């Protein structure tokens, strides 16, 4: 773990043999009061499109969001992607991941609890359930207690903590698993993996790329991170991506 992330170096600009994996919320995009309130800048879409082409398609989004939500956010792009913390991968058949019938009653109970704390939010992701308290700090302890109490009703599920959120999700899947799986397939195979992320959920991804002698980039200054490099905030990430697009595809970037 890094003792002083504020002293971690900035990542170098990419070369054409990189495989670039990008977390979304808190990394590419600034946080919003609600998951639906995030804004995707138009220039970010252009930079992602150019980098995707310059890297031969080896650029992927990595998120706790569903693939359908990622596609809607980043439309008209449809990039390679890992969704639901590794449960979904672009092109993978995840039909076997059906939500257990017990999840419906847990969802109803979670909504009843959240209703007691204005600003608390229950996000239904199909097979996973996220409990948010960003706008209701008083709900943090009750939502944590609730999540722990219902695990007994959800065999095979585990808790995934994050920034102002705790998620109930099937155990045995994480962002690192998703990244490792893509790295075994074209066009990612044989490239140097680089993952940029901000949250505790991204540490599995950092471990995955570090194990393959890649670069792990923390967004922010968390002390307990395996990251080897750092960027300050999403604005810094977007600026780095713009510089990367210019470096890898200068003639295209200059024309935009």
How would you explain this protein's 3D organization?
The chain is α/β, with parallel strands linked by helices and 256 residues long. The protein folds into two domains: 5-87 and 173-254, Rossmann fold (3-Layer(aba) Sandwich), CATH 3.40.50; 102-170, 2-Layer Sandwich (Alpha-Beta Plaits). Helices cover 32% and strands 19% of the residues. The chain has eight helices and eleven strands. It has a seven-stranded mixed β-sheet with strand order 4-3-2-1-9-10-11, sandwiched between helices. It has a four-stranded antiparallel β-sheet with strand order 5-6-8-7, covered by helices on one side. Helix 3 runs antiparallel to helix 4 (140-150). It is an enzyme of class 3 (hydrolase). One of its GO terms (biological process) is trehalose biosynthetic process. Removes the phosphate from trehalose 6-phosphate to produce free trehalose. Belongs to the trehalose phosphatase family. Keywords: Hydrolase, Magnesium, Metal-binding.
Quick rundown:
Its cofactor is Mg(2+). The protein has 256 residues and is α/β, with parallel strands linked by helices. It has 2 domains: 5-87 and 173-254, HAD superfamily/HAD-like (Rossmann fold, 3-Layer(aba) Sandwich), CATH 3.40.50.1000; 102-170, 2-Layer Sandwich (Alpha-Beta Plaits), CATH 3.30.70.
């Amino acid at each position: 773990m890094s003792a002083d992330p504020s002293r971690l170096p900035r990542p170098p600009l990419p070369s054409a043999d990189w495989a670039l994996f990008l977390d979304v919320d808190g990394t590419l995009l600034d946080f919003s009061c609600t998951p639906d309130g995030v804004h995707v800048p138009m220039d970010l879409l252009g930079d992602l499109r150019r980098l995707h082409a310059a890297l031969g398609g080896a650029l992927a989004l990595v998120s706790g969001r569903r693939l359908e939500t990622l596609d809607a956010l980043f439309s008209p792009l449809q990039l390679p992607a890992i969704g639901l913390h590794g449960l979904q991968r672009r092109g993978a058949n995840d039909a076997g991941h059906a939500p257990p019938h017990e999840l419906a009653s847990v969802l109803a109970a979670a909504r009843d609890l959240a209703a007691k704390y204005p600003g608390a939010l229950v996000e239904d992701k199909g097979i996973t359930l996220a409990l948010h308290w960003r706008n209701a700090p008083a709900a943090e302890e009750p939502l944590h207690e609730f999540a722990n109490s219902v695990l007994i009703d959800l065999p095979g599920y585990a808790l995934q903590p994050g920034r102002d959120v705790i998620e109930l999700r099937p155990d045995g899947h994480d962002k690192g698993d998703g990244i490792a799986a893509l790295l075994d397939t074209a066009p990612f195979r044989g490239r140097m993996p680089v993952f940029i992320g901000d949250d505790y959920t991204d540490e599995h991804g950092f471990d995955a790329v570090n194990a393959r002698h890649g670069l792990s980039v923390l967004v922010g200054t968390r002390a307990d991170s395996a990251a080897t490099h750092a960027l300050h905030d999403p604005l810094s990430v977007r600026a780095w991506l713009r510089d990367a697009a210019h470096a890898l595809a200068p003639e295209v970037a200059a024309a935009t």
